[in-house]
Amino acid sequence: MDFDVVRKRTELEHCPPGQDGRDVALYGLADSLYHRFHRERKIDDLNEAITMHRAALELRPIENDARSLSLNNLAVCLSYRYENQRVISDLEEAVMLGRAALELRPPGHAERSASLYGLACYLKRRFTEKAAVCDLEEAIELHRAALELRPPGYPRRDSSLRQLTLCLADRYDRQGEVNDLEEAIKFGRAELELCLPGHAKRGASLHTLACFLRKRYVKQAAIHDLEEAIELHRAALELRPPGLPDRTSTLCELALCLSSRYDKLGLVDDLEEAIKFGRAALELCLPGHANRGESLHNLACNIRKRFMKQAAIRDLEEAIELYHTALELCSSGQADRPSMLHELAFCLSSRYDKLGVVGDLEEAIVLGRATLELHPLGHPNRGVSLHNLACDLRKSFAHTAVIRDLEESIGLLRSALELRPIRHPDRASTLRQLALCLSHRHDKQSLVDDLEEAVTLGRAALELCSPGHPDRGVVLYNLACDTWKKFQKQTNIHVLQGTNFHHQAASVDRPTSRADVATSLFDLSQYLWDQFQKQGTMTDLDNAICLATYALELRSPLDDVSIGAWVQKLAQGASLGDPVILGQVVDNLCALAIYYRTRFQTQRTTVDLNEAITLYRYILQFRPAGHPNRALSLHDLAECLADRFRQQPTTVDLDDAIALQQEGPATTRTRRS
Fold this sequence. Notes:
Blueprint: H1 2-13, H2 22-40, H3 43-58, H4 67-85, H5 88-103, H6 112-130, H7 133-148, H8 157-175, H9 178-194, H10 202-220, H11 223-238, H12 247-265, H13 268-284, H14 292-310, H15 313-328, H16 337-355, H17 358-373, H18 382-400, H19 403-418, H20 427-445, H21 448-464, H22 472-490, H23 501-509, H24 514-535, H25 538-555, H26 563-572, H27 579-603, H28 606-621, H29 630-647, H30 651-672
């Protein structure tokens, strides 16, 4: 190539100014210098090529057939210089020259597709620089026009497909139109079909299509898109061995996909592999690398997820260190900064929970405030920022007892709740935290309204945490404690002398176990039942049902998704269970069945009768043949079924009631004999 440059210089020397053919000699030397630049990357060659092209262009007026070629190639050289030096005037001139070249290549011109393609690329680069969507729109239209001139079999069709897919993906990122993403995937598949194994661009095609599929997964949550993206990235990685500059991006994207699949399916192997690839990507992003901050952030996220799964403190320590380093590389205006602040605050708060270092909590609060400032009104993540900062302030109150922290926490949680309406997936957690804060303020200031609201919010949270929900246990426990506090204040404690209510009150004020709270609530439900029997106030019966229901669920293990399943397991293994616990469960079931049956008899609500029938069936499982109370249970269930038959005549209920009544006397005779 050096010989070619020397030869072209010699040719130019033999064509002095004014001699025919000088424009050709200038153009030839420019072309040789451009190709040497591509090989050796010496900017002086590119600068000289630009100078030669300018000189040739001056010698090629509009009527010169070669003028469009000079315009086109000068634009190409300026575009490359822009990529090297980021001087925007070079890019602006490339766009201007590209338009001029296109005007000289009307429809039917052999090189029109090249001019369409080149101008589209320059406009895409200018969009990247200035974010003017009109440039992106025009680039897409030009690429479509170029693609029409490059039918299947055309040697540069794959390039047009690739650039069009990238433009469509950019427009999707900006405007969120799913049709753009769908079309980008379609063209990406078409490009990949043209880049067969062995093609120089196959790795890039695999990588790009995989990225688009991951974006569609983020939008539509179709797991098959994520699965395909992972396979494509694995194939791309094989074509990008250590030493290739594009290996880093594929490692990062593959780690993101595996992390997303872990979030979806919970497979720990995916998370471990995501961490492995994240570390490999970080090793390639040395200090000063443009993507080092992103690699630090992504690796920190995955290590944080592993801590949440395995609770290994070393993971939390490493995640915090990575987040700190990533933040140092993230300027105040970068898009990732809010998420880094948020996640680092979460990690520091978690380490405070684990180790109790107050400095961690204080830093978490500072970072939480900074995150909230970056999430103003209308920002989609404002709700989570309000919620998390409130939680950390509540922890601070628990440590320091400074009431202003609790007051601020309550205010933040109220704001978060407004941003989490009914059916919002995180509404239950905000309800629970707000109830907890109000309960704490009641303990501090004895405001009855706070306790009332805490109970109301706790009930709302419990309704959103159906059986099997991971937070149901803690929500129920907190609600039970607040409910006990409420009735403890409302009930005339002096009438309870001779019972263990005072002892149970202490156990709930200073909770030691779910069983203590369950026993307290059940005892209080019985007191309210007695009050109902004396005074006939329905509120007492309603509250007795509520408390006994909470007590029954508090007695069940956290891993049982339904009372029915737990009762069945307990009854089947009754001979191996603790007699005291079994007795408490049966007493709870019996009392609750009586409460529901009584409310049905008072209000004639079928739902109450159905609940009573279900509970009596549970009780029968603990009273097999030969049990002294089986006949009574058979009779009670038969009566309830008969009541339901009278209200909603069904042959099954009547037949069952008759069979149960017939079994009752037989059971009694057998026991007497």
